[in-house]
Each structure stands twice: as C-alpha cells, then as structure tokens.
Design goal:
alpha+beta; GTP Cyclohydrolase I, domain 2; four-stranded antiparallel beta sheet
Length: 119
C-alpha cells in the first residue's frame, strides 16, 4: 500500500524531558505524522468519512503533547503512534518528534526521534 497522509511540522510548547528544569519550563517541539492507509475510496467518493481525518490526528497529537510530562522523546513518539493507530483507516504510522532546543553542550540543532508502528 503506497497511499499516505502526512501532517508535518505541528508545533507545541510543552514540558517534556529527562532533566528537572525541562519538566517545569515549556520548550518547543515539532511533530510529524505519516500514516499509511487506503485512500482509494476517498479518492472516488470525495467524502471525509472515507478517509483518515487529519484534524482528528492533529487532536491526538495535541492531547499527547499537552498531557503529563514524560522523560523521553521515544515515549512521546510511541504514545502518539499508539493513539493514531487507533483511528479508523490507519494501517501503519511513522511519528517524528523533535525537541527544538535540547540541552546540549554545543549550540544549534535539534534532537529527533522516529518510531514506526504497524496496526
């Protein structure tokens, strides 16, 4: 199956991280979600109910990002993936979570984790 729906660059301010101050001071995150699904029915019908509603996907991501803090990007990505896989029509999902200003000894850059899960 080659059909995909993507949400790219969803932005959040949240308090996730392994260090104590990261759980207290909001910091920038970005999330990308790529879902494999069968879009043939929606392509023929032009009806929202025949496709993956990316508004619902964005809401799932928002709920995870705004929930209680977690230590690892891996956990955030896994929680998003698990919840997106529960949506109708999603066969598999790839989730990328980026921390835009991780606590590194060097300046610039971001940290990113990607998880891929099948339904």
């Amino acid at each position: 199956m080659a059909d995909r729906v993507r949400l790219v660059g969803l932005r959040f301010q949240a308090c996730h991280g392994a260090l104590p101050h990261e759980r207290e001071v909001p910091q920038g995150f970005e999330v990308d979600v790529e879902m494999t699904c069968d879009l043939s029915r929606a392509g023929a019908s032009d009806r929202l109910e025949d496709t993956v509603n990316y508004g619902a996907v964005a809401e799932v991501v928002r709920q995870v990002m705004e929930a209680a803090p977690v230590a690892l990007l891996e956990r955030l990505a896994t929680l998003v993936a698990q919840n997106v896989l529960g949506l109708s029509g999603v066969l598999s999902v790839s989730v990328r979570v980026r921390k835009m200003a991780p606590p590194l000894a060097v300046g610039g850059g971001y940290a990113e984790v990607e998880v891929v899960r099948d339904g």
